[in-house]
């Protein structure tokens, strides 16, 4: 196995790097500066004849509010970029793994979304990720993994935001009507790697267990010993540019059935995150 990792310095990219170091997997990590997935010519030069067996694409435009205005940027990275990777993977007979989001769903279903359900995004970011879902099909052997509320190394995840709000205020208002599943990047990388090792291409949902933003933030802040007040709030209160689904829990059906691995609970994953990233 020889893996090309794109978007290698994001949360998930770093989780894969750590995992591959531990497992002794031969890999090549390329960040945005070194390899821009929106440039097909550059991709061909970087991949052709290098002996890669797998590409894992962790590159993405993840600014959900920003994508409302900069939708072309989002479509380019999350759509066209994935198409480029699919073309080269197809040309070179390389397996392609890619990640999508719960935000391809509108949240209206009321029960967890399975891999059978039909996407219907509420915002531009969701549209751009759905475009990527369609274009990855150009590759011969693809793994499409939807996940949600990813947290790991780096500054840009919900818990990091909560942490910085908690340093500035002694009273926080957190949405209790927004429910999905927090997903620790290390758990996601591990389960994805097991799929890769199994050679089980196809579509998957991989998340930790469900929680509201409020439950998650409260658990985290109490575990780190924050003494301020946390009040339940409604999503509408925040008047953010992008609409977000209120209930976008993904059902992991198909994962355990394939690799016999059960994703850990969000509580346990959050505790590990605190030990590994916050208190280190
Ligand atoms: N974060 C989340 O909550 C969720 C993420 N996902 C998906 O999971 C995957 C991993 O997400 P995560 O690790 O959190 O993402 P991050 O935002 O942490 O990392 C994305 C990385 O992609 C890089 N990148 C951006 N544009 C390009 C480009 N044109 N070419 C190459 N690299 C580029 C960024 O570099 P730079 O910063 O330098 O631009 C960044 O390092 C993505 O597909 C994402 O959409 C799905 C659900 C939830
Ligand atoms: C400002 C504020 C927001 N919120 C809540 C409401 C709001 O919907 C939510 C937004 O948090 P974030 O900006 O971290 O969420 P967002 O960036 O939309 O998170 C999403 O990112 C993309 C990449 C995904 O794919 C999704 O799975 C999901 O993780 O935070 C509060 O609870 N209190 C506050 O004071």
UniProtKB/TrEMBL annotation:
<comment type="similarity">
    <text>Belongs to the dTDP-4-dehydrorhamnose reductase family.</text>
</comment>
<dbReference type="Pfam" id="PF04321">
    <property type="entry name" value="RmlD_sub_bind"/>
</dbReference>
<feature type="domain" description="RmlD-like substrate binding">
    <location>
        <begin position="1"/>
        <end position="276"/>
    </location>
</feature>
<dbReference type="GO" id="GO:0008831">
    <property type="term" value="F:dTDP-4-dehydrorhamnose reductase activity"/>
</dbReference>
<keyword id="KW-0560">Oxidoreductase</keyword>
<dbReference type="InterPro" id="IPR036291">
    <property type="entry name" value="NAD(P)-bd_dom_sf"/>
</dbReference>
<keyword id="KW-0521">NADP</keyword>
<protein>
    <recommendedName>
        <fullName>dTDP-4-dehydrorhamnose reductase</fullName>
        <ecNumber>1.1.1.133</ecNumber>
    </recommendedName>
</protein>
<comment type="function">
    <text>Catalyzes the reduction of dTDP-6-deoxy-L-lyxo-4-hexulose to yield dTDP-L-rhamnose.</text>
</comment>
<comment type="pathway">
    <text>Carbohydrate biosynthesis; dTDP-L-rhamnose biosynthesis.</text>
</comment>
<dbReference type="InterPro" id="IPR005913">
    <property type="entry name" value="dTDP_dehydrorham_reduct"/>
</dbReference>
<dbReference type="InterPro" id="IPR029903">
    <property type="entry name" value="RmlD-like-bd"/>
</dbReference>
